[in-house]
Structure of Transcriptional regulator:
Amino acid sequence: MSLLEEALLLQRAAHDLMYLGMDGSPIYSDDLSRRNSEVYRLTTTLYNSGTWGTTVEEQANVCLAL
């Protein structure tokens, strides 16, 4: 998976977590925990990769995601 894809995946997961339950649906603890763990895993993977991207767009997406 490319760096840009990883950054976009993290952005989407963080967005979904941030707006969880905003539509009035119930929030279940197992779903919240799973989503939080996924965001943490994606963040750690992206941060520890040590790669900052080859284009300005990739670099911006990594910064935005983190």
